[in-house]
Design goal:
Belongs to the flavin monoamine oxidase family. It is a single chain. Helix content is 34%, strand content 19%. By secondary structure, it is α/β, with parallel strands linked by helices. Among the domains are: 6-79 and 208-288 and 401-458, FAD/NAD(P)-binding domain, CATH 3.50.50.60; 109-199 and 472-502, Guanine Nucleotide Dissociation Inhibitor, domain 1 (Orthogonal Bundle).
């Protein structure tokens, strides 16, 4: 017999728990069902006396990610700044290039090319409505083109193309050929653009949480008490006329007025829905794969990279690691380099043993840092998110060509008494912890509106807007590479003509 409650939230990650938190604040009886033996979803923190703690999943927050920072402050979770003092290494063309600015090249054409393409992307982003990207003037054209096809057309230098590949690995854990240009642009706009994140001082990785990111979910679970049930994979959601029955793998069932699904869209395929999901939603969840990433941690006796004037950051197009950072916690005994293997490299290394991954990662560290000490870490940990049963990958779901314009309308649209949360459904900070909070609260407000506890116009949070981007005059007036070459040639010819005339 079903246990009677008001609202069931499927998924005990940040998004689902924030849905439940808001609903309980309005006096509703809520139950959260989590498949794993822990809460946190794509955030997972492990502890050890030697290194204190590490985040195997989501970890970083940026200055514009106000909702997750607000929730953390409310729960008493503090942040600390990420230390990036020292030189960064661009691992391009299988060679390490040290630099302490935004660019590892002195080639003015390459720099102009990259900045011009980034500014062009931001201008394209400006034409895309966050809530209805399929309504963009060039939505169909951009959705029928991969991001790789676009960059092959607009990037004049190999440096610019490689930097765009780096950025995509870093931001989305996919290859350029996997994602449609429209979804790429929408995702970047959701994160406030491309140029904004060309500066290390204003990036998504500005801060981390003291004690780890999973604390957010753990403290929300503690606040909700026995309203959170773990080890409860949901097998079926059965909608009746005036209620919903949710049945778990352990055969427990719960009756509620509404249900919020806060799991990745692709994992909805593991749940039986009665009646079936709408045709478009059913098709969407078959076309919305997760990104591919493995997060690695190599611990050393000393921070040898600091003695070489380096900050531990590697941006690589070679692999296996595409992005690395010094992730040593304040007061920890063991320095650590965190690395992320993404895209094709992740799909290759997920079939290797942890010992083989450790060897490949440390060999890359040794080569890029130019230090044999990197070959012999005192401890190594990694997390293969591709094999995680209840995430299916990381960081975020991505849409291949044609999906957003044909099926995007079904992404966050409620189906009867079933509503959808999860960071993929956010309009701002999609893919981030901040987006998870926003999406969870939006789904909760949809139900509150149906229950007439808030007005319908209050479902969309008036604070849910992007922070305005600052564009300099230099960026506005930057020429393309062809224009720069033509202009330079014209100046050269004119100079030669004037010199000849004077003689």
């Amino acid at each position: 017999m079903a246990k009677l409650i008001v609202d069931v939230v499927v998924g005990g990650g940040i998004s689902g728990l924030c849905s439940a938190k808001l609903l309980t604040e309005y006096g509703l009886d809520v139950l959260v069902l989590e498949a794993r033996d822990r809460v946190g979803g794509r955030t997972q923190t492990i502890e050890d006396p030697a290194f204190k703690y590490i985040d195997l999943g989501g970890s970083y927050v940026g200055p514009d990610q106000h909702r997750i920072l607000h929730v953390a402050e409310e729960l008493g979770v503090e942040t600390y700044p990420v230390q990036c003092k020292g030189k960064t290494i661009d691992h391009l063309y299988a060679k390490a290039h040290e630099h302490d600015g935004s660019f590892s090249t002195w080639n003015p054409l390459a720099i102009i090319d990259y900045l011009n393409v980034a500014y062009t992307l931001d201008k394209m982003c400006d034409t895309i409505p966050l809530e209805q990207p399929w309504e963009a003037p060039q939505a169909i054209e951009w959705d029928h083109m991969t991001a790789e096809e676009f960059f092959n057309k607009v990037c004049w230098t190999s440096y610019c193309k490689k930097r765009m590949v780096q950025n995509t690995h870093h931001a989305m854990a996919v290859e350029l050929w996997e994602i449609s240009l429209l979804h790429y642009l929408w995702y970047r706009k959701s994160g406030n653009g491309v140029l904004k994140h060309s500066s290390a001082d204003d990036a998504e990785e500005e801060k981390q949480f003291v004690g780890g990111a999973q604390q957010i979910s753990n403290k929300l679970k503690k606040r909700l008490g026995d309203k959170v049930i773990v080890n409860s994979p949901v097998l079926q959601v059965n909608q009746e006329k005036d209620h919903v029955i949710v049945t778990c793998k352990n055969r427990n069932s719960y009756q509620s007025k509404y249900v919020i699904s806060a799991i990745p869209q692709a994992l909805l395929n593991k749940v039986s829905f009665v009646p079936p999901l709408s045709p478009l939603k059913n098709q969407l969840i078959q076309r919305f794969p997760m990104g591919s990433s493995i997060k690695t941690f190599a611990f050393y006796e000393t921070a040898f990279w600091k003695s070489k004037g380096l900050n531990g950051v590697i941006l690589s197009d070679f692999g296996p690691i595409h992005t690395s950072m010094d992730d040593t916690k304040p007061g920890a005994n063991l320095p650590v380099i965190m690395g992320i293997i993404t895209g094709d490299q992740a799909r290759y290394f997920c079939n290797k043993t942890q010992k083989e991954r450790k060897q490949a990662v440390c060999e890359q560290h040794a080569k890029v840092f130019g230090c044999k000490e990197a070959l012999n870490p005192v401890h190594y940990v990694d997390k293969d998110w591709l094999g995680d049963e209840y995430s299916g990958g990381c960081y975020v779901g991505i849409m291949p060509c044609g999906v957003m314009t044909k099926y995007g309308k079904a992404l966050r649209c409620p189906i009867g008494r079933l509503h959808f949360a999860g960071t993929e459904t956010a309009t701002i900070s999609a893919g981030y912890m901040d987006g998870a909070v926003r999406a969870g609260e939006r789904a909760a407000r949809e139900i509150l509106s149906k229950l007439r506890k808030i007005a319908e116009e209050d479902v969309r949070d008036v604070k849910d807007v992007l922070t305005p981007r600052h564009v300099t005059m230099a960026q506005r007036c930057l020429p393309t590479v062809p224009a720069f070459l033509v202009g330079s040639a014209a100046v050269f010819v004119l100079g030669g003509y004037l010199s000849f005339s004077e003689s």
